[in-house]
Amino acid sequence: MQGAFREHVDAFRRCGCEAMEVRTREELDEVAALAIPGGESTAITKLLRSFGLWEALLKRGAEDLPILATCAGVIVLARGIVGSDQVSLGLLDVAVRRNAYGRQVDSFETELKIEALGTEPVPAIFIRAPIIESVGPKVEVLATYREKAVLVRQGRILAATFHPELTADLRLHQYFLEMAEGKR
Asked: Which of 9, 21, 146, 162 is deepest in the core (most CB within 10 A)?
């Protein structure tokens, strides 16, 4: 609906997966997995509500729908947003701080070591990214940057505070697809 959704669709298609944009409850009911992209979390939240997807997403999430959340998507899924009264779905047991690395001009690229994706570093683009301040007991931290979690997994939810969809590296999307299929 808002943010880097086209880039996710393209990444999934390059992984050999059928991918579509979701804007209605009926389309949400059709998908076997979902990506909530980076963008602007308050805009995404308002659009989910205005398109009638908020409750449907809560229901599907409770039914164990595999979800990949990136950047703003992590904020939308979080149980809490530190320093904000913004509403979130609460499907992911993390507390996040919005725009924690700074403003747009403070955006940066780095490489991360993610054991689950192999020995080669993974390119990571952080754009006004949130920081995961705390994780619940069922959340597994898969990668950190400056001692803060930047990639976490809770059951069938995979959440990255960076933008893997903006790189040519498909390993994170492939990992998510394997996770969604029950292979991980």
From this structure: 162
Q: Are 92 and 60 in contact (CB under 8 A)?
A: no
40 known member of a binding site: yes
* 25 is annotated as contributing to ligand binding: no
Residues 73-100: tens digit of each pLDDT: 999 999 999 988 888 999 999 999 987 7
For 46, phi and psi rounded to 5 degrees?
-65, -40
Q: What would the pLDDT profile of 93-117 be if each residue is shown by its tens digit?
A: 999 998 777 667 678 899 999 999 9
Catalytic residues: 71, 163, 165
Residue 132's pLDDT band, with cuts at 50, 70 and 90, is very high
Say whether 41 counts as a known binding-site residue.
Answer: yes
